[in-house]
Amino acid sequence: xxxxxxxxxxxxxxxxxxxxxxxxxxxxxxxxxxxxxxxxxxxxxxxxxxxxxxxxxxxxxxxxxxxxxxxxxxxxxxxxxxxxxxxxxxxxxxxxxxxxxxxxxxxxxxxxxxxxxxxxxxxxxxxxxxxxxxxxxxxxxxxxxxxxxxxxxxxxxxxxxxxxxxxxxxxxxxxxxxxxxxxxxxxxxxxxxxxxxxxxxxxxxxxxxxxxxxxxxxxxxxxxxxxxxxxxxxxxxxxxxxxxxxxxxxxxxxxxxxxxxxxxxxxxxxxxxxxxxxxxxxxxxxxxxxxxxxxxxxxxxxxxxxxxxxxxxxxxxxxxxxxxxxxxxxxxxxxxxxxxxxxxxxxxxxxxxxxxxxxxxxxxxxx
Length: 367
Ligand SMILES: *Cc1c(COP(=O)(O)O)cnc(C)c1O
Known about the structure:
Blueprint: H1 9-15, H2 17-30, H3 37-50, E1 54-58, H4 61-71, E2 79-83, H5 88-95, E3 100-104, E4 125-131, H6 140-150, E5 153-157, E6 165-166, E7 169-170, E8 177-181, E9 195-199, H7 202-211, E10 216-218, E11 221-222, H8 233-244, H9 246-263, E12 286-288, H10 293-302, H11 332-340, E13 341-343, H12 352-363
Parallel strand pairs: 2-3, 2-4, 4-5, 5-8
Antiparallel strand pairs: 1-9, 6-7, 8-9, 10-11, 12-13
Helix pairs in contact: 2-8, 3-8, 4-5, 9-12
The chain binds pyridoxal-5'-phosphate.
């Protein structure tokens, strides 16, 4: 029996192989490789998908995050509120600008606990960075209201939430900026690094286009110190192919998640829930296994089933952020989740047979 991988990007490619290959050849033969027709068309189509007026193609999700704060003028001396249980890139988007992350604990859906945000607001707080973790929308109604009440900017990290909605409105359309990654393993993955921001503000979109290209709008006239964060035509073209199939790709993930939720019945594991206001696009299907996570992972591994921990070390406990001085024990929910979570195999093109093997194996785990 073949080992079941946690993710299989080849299956996602093979599903639409001909379309991807035709587009790749078209771009290769076009003689134009960075910021051209494909990027322009992609930005229009992606903005329409998310439901914003603008999208700006960038080189990665991290660039989308740090450039968002840069364009919003958030930097040294400013505080940004962010959930503590996130991928470290969310936090780096803040600290690359010399701003200070202020961590908030997650709720039962692994999203920022909206009821614990206001206690963290000070007169230095400038923004909230919401991460729609694992593909589940955060509680945007409450968070948008908090931002309005305290006059804070709102940035959304949508690297895991392409297509996920809060009360029918898509993540990435609530904030000043929605920040997307198209890293190959994301729900909407490219075939290399790529990212984008979405926004409804024409001036923010214009500034982002200036910042992504060395701070230049007109060739060799540089308005600000920018970055090289341009989207290449190959990725933009391939992303257009992927975008055209996103509803199908998301529906497939939803069906796989539903089968897990219906099939898994081991009382030793806690299955993920979906909040009444949210839709989830299942970037990850995350179980919690209190006390026994590591032996559970080993047991699956011994049965040729690979899993991944998202994430074993919360950013505040990583070596990179020792300088923040946020001590162990100060974010107990986050720290407990880091010891209990485990992400099951879930990918485009996963077969029923593969999924049944995972489900049967989990249900036979005795602890
Ligand atoms: C992947 C990811 C990022 C970073 O995206 P890159 O394209 O790898 O730079 C940021 N935030 C979250 C939550 C992510 O999952």
